[in-house]
């Protein structure tokens, strides 16, 4: 999950809590608000971590996966190419295993 998606998740929790506030007691509200604030803090730390990595021009392993997902989500031609390559690669591997037996 990207830091942007995590921030959306945390803000979604906050919005849900505010929408439900009239139906919940004060104690429950305070407990859930504490959880929302924790999730927001995690989102801020995640974002800061990603920014530091970008500044240093390095990527963490999870960043590689996140970037690959972004590329595939935003580039239909790349998705199609990867699907074709994957199918061909799978078939070639399958054929090689069979021919060795």
Write the layout of secondary structure elements.
Elements: H1 3-20, H2 26-55, H3 61-74, H4 76-100
Helix pairs in contact: 1-2
Report on the structure:
- It is a single chain.
- This protein is mostly helical and 101 residues long.
- It has a domain at 3-58.
- The chain has helices spanning 3-20, 26-55, 61-74, 76-100.
- Helix 1 (3-20) packs antiparallel against helix 2 (26-55).
- The chain is elongated, with a radius of gyration of 22 Å.
- The two termini are 41 Å apart.
Q: What's the order of the H and E elements?
A: HHHH
Main sheet summary: none
- Helix count equals 4
- Cα shape: elongated
Question: Level of helix content?
Answer: over 70%
Average pLDDT, all residues: 84
What's the N-to-C terminus distance? 41 Å
Q: Count the strands?
A: 0
Say what oligomer this is.
single chain
Give me some keywords for this one.
101 residues, mainly alpha, elongated
Summarize the structure.
With 101 residues, this protein is an all-alpha fold.
């Amino acid at each position: 999950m990207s830091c942007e998606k995590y921030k959306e998740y945390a803000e979604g929790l906050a919005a849900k809590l505010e929408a439900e506030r009239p139906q919940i007691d004060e104690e429950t509200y305070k407990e859930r608000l504490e959880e929302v604030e924790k999730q927001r803090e995690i989102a801020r730390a995640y974002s800061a971590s990603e920014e530091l990595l970008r500044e240093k021009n390095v990527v963490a392993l999870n960043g590689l996966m996140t970037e690959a997902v972004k590329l595939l989500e935003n580039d239909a031609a790349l998705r199609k190419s990867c699907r074709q390559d994957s199918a061909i690669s799978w078939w070639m591997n399958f054929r090689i295993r069979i021919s060795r037996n």
